[in-house]
Structure formats: structure tokens, C-alpha cells
Amino acid sequence: MKKITLLLIFICILTGCKKAEEKTIKEQKEETKVITYKMPEKYESRPLTEEYKIITLDKDVTITSPGTYFLTGKSSDITITIDTSDTVELILSNLFITNTNKEIIKVKNTKELLITLNKKNKLITNDISTIISEEIINIGGSGSLDIISNDTGIVSTKDLIIESGKLNITSTKEAIKSDKSIYIFDTNLKIETQEDSIKSKEAILIKNGKFNIKSGEDAIKTNWDLIIDNGKFDIKTVDDAIKSDNELIINDGNINILECNEGIESTKVKINNGNIKIKSS
Question: How far apart are CA 165 and CA 185, in angstroms?
Fold first, then answer.
């Protein structure tokens, strides 16, 4: 009887352990964060309309109605604030603004802010980010935008999309930063930063384009998935060149990592095609 009793107790202990283990696994699965994403559709034409309002840049401006707005000329120490429930488009055309202690474009509320680049544009800020948004930002157009910031260049708490144009960003902190996902395609992007260059908490998706990056920390970094469909990359960085905390997929592209500590870093790496050169110190 003693042997049978001991055997039953042993079985009960094992069964209890198994149930506890199953419960732990179930709890872990429930706590796992699942993020889904897809490449946004590009706007067929920009600007969205030929009818637009011209903004006079002699003082701070708050846009409270949706629509398309045209900005041009030189100014200093002004902020364009977006605060409306629907989509706003800003056309930048030969725009030059220098600010000392306040952002140039600030998005408080909108369905989406479209920044359409026409001709050459330059935004300079000191001790504060140049473009700050609490909503989705979509940058594109046939023109160019130079950003010089003694802080972060472009920062958004939601998705950040760059679908065309030419951007040249010099910053002491991150050049492009999002608390959600970053989508970049068909863009000529030149970045020089003292910290991370392109950084997001969720996914980074890159399709086509030309990238010249010089970074004081990581060049391209995400806390989630990173997908490169194509593009030409020249990267010099002090730390990691391309880093994902979850899965990194390279489907194609010419990636030339000229200087780095680690070239490609991720929990899972999948390279389907492309030409990759890495020079690590």
C-alpha cells in the first residue's frame, strides 16, 4: 500500500507541475504583443488639389480647418501648428525658416498631415525638434527638404511615411523617429546624426530609394520587424548598421556598410536576395 500511495502522490505532483507549466505558457502567449502592418498606398499626385490657401509667415499660425496650404518665403521664430480633425496638406515651396527655441511644424490633431515638397526648402532649429507630430505624417513630392536640428529632426508618436522626394537631415539626436512604424520608399535620403539615424518602436519598411547615412550610434534601428525590399545603402556608423529586435528580412538591395561595430543584428535574419558588403571594426 505504501508503494501505491507514493506512486499516486508522485503522479499528482507531475500532473500539477504540467498544469502549472501549461498555465504559464498560456499566460505568456496572452502577454505577447502582436503587431500587423502593411505598406501604405502612395498618393497618385501631389499636391492633392490646385486650390490652396497661402499662409503669411510673419507670426505663429494655427491651422484649424482641413485643406491644402501653400508656404513659401523666408521667416524666423514661427511655428505652424495643425489642430483639426481632418487631413491637412502643407505645400513647401522655396521655404526657409530658422527657429531658436521652438519647433517649426507642430501637429496636435489631424487625420493625417501631408507635407508636399516643391522646389528647395530648408528648416533650421536650435535646442528643439524641427517637426513634431502626435498624428500620422506623410512626406513626399518632387522637391527637396534640408533639416538642420540641434535636437531631433522629425519625430512622431504615430506612423511616419516618406514616399518620395529628397531629404537631407543633420541632427544631434535622431534624424527620423517614430513611436509606431516608419515606411520609406522611392526617397533620396541623406542623414548625419550624433545618435540613431532612423528609429522606431514598431516596424520599419523600406522599398527602393537611395540612403546615405552617417550615424553616431545605430543607423537603422527598430524594436520590431525590419523589412528591406530594395534600395541602395551607404552606411557609416559607430554601432549597429541595421538592427531589429525581432525579425530582419532583406528581399533585395545594394547594401554597403563601410564602417560599423555590427553590420546586421537581429533575433531572426532572412536574406532572400541582394548585394551586401560589411566592413566591421
Answer: 10
Q: Does the pLDDT value for residue 11 go beyond 80? A: no
What value does the mean pLDDT take over residues 154-168? 97
DSSP letter assigned to residue 45: S
Backbone angles phi, psi at 202, to 5 degrees: -115, -140
Contact 263, 239 (CB under 8 A): no
**Which pLDDT score, from 0 to 100, does residue 43 have?**
84
Q: How far apart are CA 259 and CA 239, in angstroms?
A: 9
Contact criterion met (CB below 8 Å) for 104 and 129: no
Cell numbers for 279: 566592413
* Three-state DSSP state, 43: coil
The H or E element containing residue 56 is none
186-195: long-range contacts at Cβ-Cβ below 8 A with a sequence spacing of 24 or more?
A: 186/42, 187/162, 187/163, 189/162, 189/213, 191/215, 193/153, 193/169, 193/217, 195/171
Q: What pTM, to 2 d.p., does this model score?
A: 0.86
Cα angle at 134 between 198 and 185, to 5 degrees?
40
Q: How far is CA 262 from the centre of its chain?
A: 21
Q: Which H or E run includes 74?
A: strand 67-76
- What secondary structure does DSSP assign to 180-237, as a single string? S-EEEES-EEEEEESS-SEEESS-EEEES-EEEEEESS-SEEESS-EEE-S-EEEEEE
